[in-house]
């Protein structure tokens, strides 16, 4: 179209490497940063609110109770990497975007 290239054909393994690169720039929306830094919210809460996901929906996605999930958003909660990975996956973000 108009002399511009619209597609590139690369071996599938190279495509996967490009898609899964860990050195790509990690971005966090201003609203999430503001909620975390200015308002003091945990990143898990800031992201959940930004994505407009309810406690109930997050709990459902994680297969836990709503009360158990709400405990994870408390300021003093210490979440292990495996839990953060599950939360990030449930929100459709990278774990690097979720860590504080």
Polypeptide structure, described:
It is built from seven helices and no strands. With 100 residues, the chain is mostly helical. Helix 4 (55-62) crosses helix 5 (66-72). The longest helix is centred in the C-terminal third of the chain and has 11 residues, at 81-91.
Short summary of the structure?
The protein is an all-alpha fold. Helices cover 54% and strands 0% of the residues.
Structural class: mainly alpha
Radius of gyration: 17 Å
Level-2 CATH architecture? Orthogonal Bundle
> What's the CATH H-level superfamily name?
lambda repressor-like DNA-binding domains
Helix-strand pattern:
HHHHHHH
Q: Roughly how many Å apart are the termini? A: 45 Å
Let me know the largest β-sheet.
Answer: none
CATH class identity: Mainly Alpha
Give the uncertain stretches in residue-range form: none
Helix content: 40-55%
CATH topology: 434 Repressor (Amino-terminal Domain)
């Amino acid at each position: 179209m108009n002399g511009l290239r619209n597609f590139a054909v690369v071996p599938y393994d190279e495509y996967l490497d490009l898609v899964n690169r860990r050195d790509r720039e990690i971005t966090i929306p201003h609203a999430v940063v503001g909620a975390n830094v200015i308002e003091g919210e945990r990143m898990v809460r800031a992201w959940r609110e930004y994505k407009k996901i309810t406690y109930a929906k997050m709990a459902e996605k994680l297969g836990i109770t709503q009360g158990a999930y709400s405990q994870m958003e408390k300021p003093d909660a210490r979440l292990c990497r495996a839990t953060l990975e599950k939360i990030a996956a449930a929100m459709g973000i990278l774990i690097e975007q979720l860590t504080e």
